[in-house]
Amino acid sequence: MQVSVPGQRRRRVAKLPSGALGALARRPSLAGEALLIWIHLIPRAWWRRAPFLPLPDRRWLEFRLETAYGDHSDGPDTTALVDVITWSRAFRRQVRVRQGGHR
Which of 40, 47, 73, 85 is deepest in the core (most CB within 10 A)? Predict the structure, then answer.
C-alpha cells in the first residue's frame, strides 16, 4: 500500500499478507489476540506523524521482517501469521497462570 502525503515523498506502509483477514475470520478466537499484538506495534503518539494512521513504524517492521525472513519485502505468509498469533495467546495465558491469574 502506498500512502501519499502532500509535501512529502511517497512511502511504503506495512501490509498484511493476502488472506490474513480471512484466516482470522475463520478463527474468531484469535481476533482479540491479533488486536492486542497490533496495539503493541503502534508507536506512541502516532497521530502526530504522517500518514496519521495507527501503523507500526516502517523501518522497525522492515528490520523485524528481514531478521525473521531474510528479506523485508517477503513478509510472513498467512500460516506464519496465524502461528505467531496462536503462540502469543498461549504464551500470554502461560504467563498469567504462573503469576497466579486465572482464565
Answer: 85
Q: What is the pLDDT of residues 35-55, one digit of tens each?
A: 999 999 898 998 998 888 888
- Chain length of the chain: 103
Range of the domain at 92: 21-98
In a domain, 92, yes or no: yes
Banded pLDDT at 87 (limits 50, 70, 90): very high
Does residue 72 fall inside a structural domain? yes
Overall domain count for the chain: 1
Under 8 Å between Cβ of 34 and 85: yes
pLDDT at 76: 78
In a domain, 6, yes or no: no
pLDDT the model gives residue 1: 47
The cell numbers describing 41, all together, are 506495534
Please state the pTM of the whole predicted model: 0.69
